[in-house]
Design a protein that fits this description.
The protein is of the alpha/beta class and 193 residues long. The protein has five helices and five strands, in the order E-H-E-H-E-H-H-E-H-E. It has a five-stranded mixed β-sheet. Helix 2 links the parallel strand 2 and strand 3. The longest helix has 14 residues. 31% of the residues are buried.
């Protein structure tokens, strides 16, 4: 309990993986590429120093997030991590691994026009990403006081921001989508209700 007598709120740490080893300008979401090992180690060191004891750590199943989870656990054995596919980045289908500039402008425009329902490269649409992120958020125990750490991706972090601001079931237009996200290997914390 805090000084007001209210129980402490659980904090959700939204941690972005370290910089991936991919050429700049490449479309990647579900593409399973590794992160830079030195950057991953540095991110894990900063995170290990910041996280409270016994935090519950969950990571995306993509290797760039798993790398950070494993480095963190090596530094802090009390922070064993569990994989959760709901924390994966958006799947861009046939766009994965292509240079953004090589994707037809008409396809980008179609995605922008039907932002939440369009399936880039016949992959996953934003509505599906929001639904799985909302489901992961609902798994939170409202009575828990243990901090929860998601090692994840910018798209998932933006999805959390959207869901907190607008609720589940409200779909964004492209111009409404949050652009802010932590930098590589950085994080933000939010309180869960």
């Amino acid at each position: 309990m805090d000084v007001t007598g209210a129980p402490p709120k659980t904090r959700l740490w939204l941690v972005r993986h370290a910089q991936p080893l991919v050429a700049p300008g490449t479309c990647y979401g579900a593409l399973d590429i590794p992160a830079d090992p030195a950057a991953t180690r540095a991110a894990a060191e900063h995170l290990a120093a910041a996280l409270p004891p016994q935090s519950r750590v969950i990571h995306s199943t993509l290797q760039r997030c798993e790398q950070l989870a494993l480095e963190l656990q090596a530094l802090r054995p009390d922070l064993a991590s569990k994989p959760d596919a709901r924390l994966r980045e958006m799947d861009f289908g046939s766009w994965e691994g292509q240079a953004w500039e090589s994707i037809a402008r008409s396809d980008i425009d179609a995605w922008t026009a039907a932002f939440a329902s369009y399936r880039p490269g016949l992959g996953e649409n934003l509505a599906a990403v929001l639904a799985r992120v909302a489901a992961a958020l609902q798994d939170h125990d409202p009575g828990a006081t243990q901090d929860v750490v998601w090692i994840t991706h910018a798209g998932v972090i933006r999805s959390v921001a959207w869901l907190r601001a607008h609720g589940n079931g409200v779909l964004p237009r492209s111009e409404e989508w949050p652009v802010a996200a932590p930098g590589w290997g950085q994080w933000e914390r939010i309180e869960l209700g």
